[in-house]
Amino acid sequence: MEKRNTYLVGARVAKSTLTRYLLGIPGGLLSAFFLFGLILCFTDESMREDWWVAVLMLLPSAWLLWKGVSAGRDLELARRYEAAFSADPDGRLSLEKLIAQSGKSGAQLGAELERLFRKGYFRGCTLQKKPLAVILTGTQKGGERYVTVTCPHCGGPTRLGAGRSGKCDYCGSAIRAEE
Asked: Is the pLDDT of residue 175 over 50?
């Protein structure tokens, strides 16, 4: 069976999956248990003075639940973005392309991508800050290689598939990436 090229880092995906289940499930069970205890403290006259114990126990269990849910959310976001990266034909996903695909605001997209790149979810791509874009580097998706071409007119860098033609990201001039 052919191994699928991916922009996701396998070790990071495995760690997030493990975190999702090892923290999320026990955190959810413990949170439910201690929340029940807190409710019981307020409904049972004899336990009313012990409410602070239930709150004290609820806080770390809620933190475990939050960490598990956050890991799962980040993992799902990384998988969605990876699918968009893999479908891109020209090696550069601009903010406009990502907004059109996701329906999210530019600020939200930027924050999500920055967090996922900082946590090390992706390989074979970089996050360009200004203008915001994901630049696909290296060999991915069918073995295509991307290169940086310097525009002869304005000097701006543009990523293109090796051997492809395109337009400069800065001035719009026609450029070609040599193989």
From this structure: yes
